[in-house]
Design brief:
The protein is α+β, with helices and mostly antiparallel strands.
Length: about 260
């Protein structure tokens, strides 16, 4: 009985892979010279059954990945691809600009250096450098967290409009992670206001007990905060007076990265 279940699952997986291969084949027809095709043209180019091609195109059209022109009966790539491409480009641009400075910060501070953005109302980690730190943390690249999470989330929220902050905190109510996590929305809002005035956020024991993190904003050409840069390390590793030095190093790096993204003070 067990063997039969495994066999059925494997066959289903194989079918799903074949469908995905067909989708990739259709997408690969599009290039900088050929932007649109009729259903018949796609069928001829791929050799797939017309009904299969139609189902794939219709599914992708409904999701915004394809656009159908009734006049010439042709399918072109939809705006959803542009949106996703913009996300990838933005993330890569920020990562590229930040990477060398993250490496220097990691060496100088002996800390884990993190880079994050807000995407689809959640904190998204897009880079991490922990090569010179004595600790390893679970915030891997691609991991999503609630928007208020830690030094990066709070830094990003601080530079949003108040109405947008309230919306996100209502959608993702702060929850206890450690004994020191702030969950009162009014107190969170107060901390966000303070962060915006100071230009940085200090977090101690709120996500992981024993760790201290500092987050700073990164701005684009228009002065919008598009990412947050942060350093986290064991609190016992930080000597008296070190916090101000760490803040200044992070602020200096964030200003240089922002400048590379086109921001002028």
């Amino acid at each position: 009985m067990k063997k039969e279940v495994i066999k059925k699952t494997t066959m289903k997986d194989q079918y799903n892979i074949k469908v995905l291969e067909k989708i990739v084949t259709i997408l690969n027809l599009y290039n900088d010279k050929e932007h649109e095709f009729t259903l018949t043209e796609i069928k001829k180019r791929t050799g797939f059954p017309k009904t299969t091609v139609f189902r794939i195109l219709k599914t992708f059209e409904n999701a915004g990945f394809f656009k159908y022109d009734l006049a010439d009966e042709k399918y072109s790539l939809g705006l959803r691809f542009l949106e996703l491409g913009g996300i990838v480009y933005e993330s890569l641009s920020i990562r590229k600009a930040a990477a060398p400075y993250m490496d220097v910060l990691s060496q100088n501070l002996k800390a884990v250096i993190l880079l994050g953005v807000l995407k689809n109302d959640q904190l998204l980690y897009i880079d991490k450098n922990e090569s010179n730190s004595i600790i390893r943390i679970s915030s891997r690249i691609g991991l999503r967290r609630p928007p208020y999470y830690g030094m990066l989330g709070m830094t990003l929220l601080a530079y949003m409009e108040e109405s947008e902050r309230k919306r996100l905190l209502q959608q993702y109510p702060p929850t206890k992670i450690t004994e020191y996590t702030v969950t009162d929305v009014d107190e969170v809002m107060r901390k966000l206001d303070e962060t915006r005035k100071l230009g940085y956020y200090i977090e101690k024991d709120e996500v992981v007990e024993g760790l201290l993190g500092i987050g700073v904003p990164i701005k684009d050409y228009y002065g919008n905060v598009v990412a947050a840069l942060g350093a986290t390390q064991p609190a016992f590793q930080i000597k008296k007076g070190d916090i101000e030095d760490i803040i200044q190093e992070l602020l200096k790096a964030s200003k240089i990265i922002s400048k590379e993204l086109g921001h002028i003070e």
